[in-house]
Amino acid sequence: MGEGLQGILGPLLLFTVFIVFFIVLPQRKKLKQEKNFDKDLKKGDRVITKSGLHGKILELNDNGTCVLETMSGKMKFERSALSIEMTQALNKSVVEAKK
User: Fold this and answer.
1) Fewest CB within a 10 Å sphere: which of 17, 43, 53, 71?
2) Helix axis angle, 25-40 relative to 84-98, nearest 10°?
3) Same domain, yes or no, for 34 and 46?
């Protein structure tokens, strides 16, 4: 009976290590990036929403919203609607164009 438990313990341990390294740790890293992105936002930053809307931040509110100035006027969004990846790519291309 003890041999059966030992036979399953190895694969179970490997599965646990796999879950930690390929699921839990990358998720923690992404949450940390999102927290830093939200903390680093400031008035005047150019951003892109997850739906693809481009704008400039006019207001940052403590309740988790922000007001963006777009070509259509001012719009209020949740900060969670801002895309980290697209915003970073936008700002990276602007910095490169200035060089």
Assistant:
1) 71
2) 60
3) no
1 pLDDT exceeds 50?
A: no
What predicted TM-score, i.e. pTM, was given to this entire model? 0.72
The reported pLDDT for the residue numbered 46 is 95
Here the tokens at position 26 are: 């990358």
Range of the domain at 5: 1-40
Q: How many CB atoms lie within 10 A of CB 63?
A: 6
Residues in the chain: 99
Q: Indicate the number of domains in the chain.
A: 2
Q: What is the CATH number of the domain that holds 70?
A: 2.30.30
Q: Are residues 49 and 94 in the same domain?
A: yes
Q: Are 44 and 59 in contact (CB under 8 A)?
A: no
Task: Check whether residue 11 and residue 31 sit in a common domain.
Answer: yes
Residues 6+ apart with CB under 8 A from 57: 41, 42, 43, 44, 45, 47, 66, 67, 68, 69
